[in-house]
What does this fold into?
Amino acid sequence: MRRPLQLAASTWMVGVAAMALAGCGSDAHQTDGSAVSMDADFSVCAGTAAVPYSAGWTATSAAGTYVGTVVSAVTEPSPTSPGADHPEVGLGDWVVNVTEAAGGAPADVVMTAERPFMPRHGHGATTTPPVTPGSPGMFTVTKMDFFMPGYWQVTLDLQPPSGTSDTLTYAICIPSS
It folds into this structure.
């Protein structure tokens, strides 16, 4: 009688261990034709809101006032990686264009970034990425520390000269390689 109970407990433990090893799990796939490694594994984000990066990726702000478009996203070279023209594990740099949702004019806002965060893991990066303004509505967010593959949230805070602040949130899948 104890044997079926032990077998059930062992099976349950193997299942729990498999889910833990899977981490943030996606069935999402890169579809924009960018140069993502053929070995990139987006399954680490299965069952999440995360999507693989594609140029021109947009998000509407929480209040619906602004639209943010990720114009480009790269991974910086490091001693162990040559870098990439898309997000991977490592330090990421994004160029984001922010426009007014009504009319599409460049947004007159100050942008700051929050530390990238992994919702399924309950932790995030230890550093806050700096944001550099460019031409009206254009911003460069640098040194986003995607230190492991999985489902990441990148939140960008927008503050107009007068009025209520707003946020853009991107749910991105950083693939395993």
Q: What stands out?
A: Strands lie at 57-60, 66-75, 90-100, 110-113, 117-118, 123-124, 131-133, 138-146, 150-159, 166-174.
